[in-house]
Design goal:
Elements: E1 5-9, H1 14-25, E2 29-34, H2 43-47, E3 55-58, H3 64-74, E4 78-81, H4 90-93, H5 95-116, E5 121-127, H6 150-169, E6 172-178, E7 181-182, H7 191-203, E8 210-212, E9 218-219, E10 222-223, H8 224-235, E11 242-245, E12 251-252, H9 253-263, E13 272-274, H10 292-298, H11 306-324
Parallel strand pairs: 1-2, 1-4, 2-3, 4-5, 5-6, 6-11, 7-10, 8-13
Antiparallel strand pairs: 9-12
Helix pairs in contact: 1-8, 3-5, 5-6, 7-9, 7-11, 9-11
Bound molecules: NADP nicotinamide-adenine-dinucleotide phosphate and guanosine-5'-diphosphate-alpha-D-mannose.
């Protein structure tokens, strides 16, 4: 019997790589949509040792015809839409591109499924950024949204289009409202990885200081390896639905810095400088999720404490920096 197929957009990103690994372990035939890029895109798949195990299909989520071809070719039972311009900071300088990729891209996937594979189950990578200027101190599936960035607004459009395709056309379309999740495969522009990489480089004498923006911001940070399990679980449910995926604990960027620098025997206060240019035009000051529904309905909960996550990231950065030194 042919293996159950899954199609992942954004397969070369942090979550795409961990999800591909998880699905391969579960016996799926894993297909990924690969947009054309000049630089090395496959480093995360190589890092996890799965680059030869996934089947990559030329395509871009902004190009509907390529998305339809990818769906037709892979005949997926499950489609995970992880592709996005996902860096919040860039979404102010490239708001239209962000809208096209992060917003319209999701609708292209939904329409391709509706036309070519209506029985496929669909996962949309929604985000706690949609809560933005929070309306409730702890955010759940029923908390009103108030996005604070072009990225958050684009994701909110994709989120509601997912709900709308579920309600209008009966698609098995679910939306995971994931809070921040990190790993050694996190892009270096995001604050945790920026900090763990800097701590490692400063320890090795390759860098002196680290410039950051708002270190009073608070995030509910978990481990990406844990969070991709929740994505898969959502698509195993009889009924599609929306779920908050979070740890239920929030920490300041400042305290996260302290964890990272302590892990290499340094004090962040001796190395971190505040750069007003890194402040955002509108900030999401604090995020804290209530993962109760995911725990009750999916049997999922986060298992990696922030201390372990940051140590894991610092160790990985130390190892990689030593290798390239
Ligand atoms: P990521 O590392 O930035 O991965 C995004 C992926 O999308 C990359 O592989 C990227 O390729 C690809 N991509 C960009 N534009 C594309 C296009 N036009 N067509 C096809 N692929 C394209 O993000 P992540 O952290 O893995 O997050 C995965 C998803 O979850 C994203 O949608 C993100 O917005 C969402 N999310 C993330 C978090 C989090 O904390 N990590 C939380 C909530 C939601 P290139 O790098 O080559 O552009
Ligand atoms: N990136 C970055 N760089 N952030 C900084 C810096 C810095 O130098 N200094 C302070 N920060 C603050 C940001 O202002 C923000 O409040 C917080 O650190 C986290 O920033 P990021 O790590 O860039 O993540 P994010 O919360 O904006 O967005 C991430 O999480 C979302 C889920 O809530 C991304 O992964 C999004 O794609 C995701 O949807």
């Amino acid at each position: 019997m042919a293996a159950r197929a899954a199609l992942i957009t954004g397969i070369t990103g942090q979550d795409g790589a961990y999800l591909a690994k998880l699905l391969l372990q579960k016996g799926y035939a894993v297909f990924g949509v690969l947009p054309r890029r000049a630089s090395d895109m496959l480093w995360r798949l190589r890092y996890l040792g799965i680059q030869d195990d996934v089947q990559l299909l030329d395509g871009d989520v902004t190009d509907l015809s390529s998305v339809i071809r990818a769906v037709e070719h892979s005949q997926p039972a499950e489609v995970y839409n992880l592709a996005a311009q996902s860096f919040v900071g860039t979404s102010w300088s490239q708001p239209i591109l962000t809208g096209m990729v992060t917003g319209i891209g999701a609708v292209n996937l939904l329409e391709a499924i509706r036309m070519a594979q209506p029985k496929a189950r669909f996962y949309q990578a929604s985000t706690s950024e949609m809560f933005g200027q929070i309306r409730e101190p702890v955010q759940s599936e029923t908390t009103p949204f108030y996005p604070r960035s072009p990225y958050g607004a684009a994701k909110l459009y994709a989120h509601w289009m997912t709900v709308n395709h579920r309600e209008s056309f009966g698609l098995h379309a679910s939306s995971g409202i994931l809070f921040n999740h990190e790993s050694p495969l996190r892009g270096p522009e995001f604050v945790t990885r920026k900090v763990t990489l800097a701590a490692a480089r400063i320890k090795l004498g390759q860098q002196k200081s680290l410039r950051l923006g708002n270190i009073d911001a608070q995030r509910d940070w978990g481990f990406a390896g844990d969070f991709v399990e929740a994505m898969w679980l959502m698509l195993q449910q009889d009924q599609p639905d929306d779920y908050v995926v979070a740890t239920g604990r929030t920490t300041t960027v400042r305290d996260m810095c302290s964890l990272a620098f302590n892990a290499v025997g340094l004090r962040y206060e001796d190395h971190v400088e505040i750069d007003p240019a890194l402040m955002r035009p509108a900030e999401v000051e604090v995020l804290l999720g209530n993962p109760g529904k995911a725990r009750e309905r999916l049997g999922w909960s986060a298992t990696t404490p922030l201390e372990d996550l940051i140590s894991m990231m610092v160790e990985a950065d130390l190892a990689r920096e030593r290798q390239t030194a």
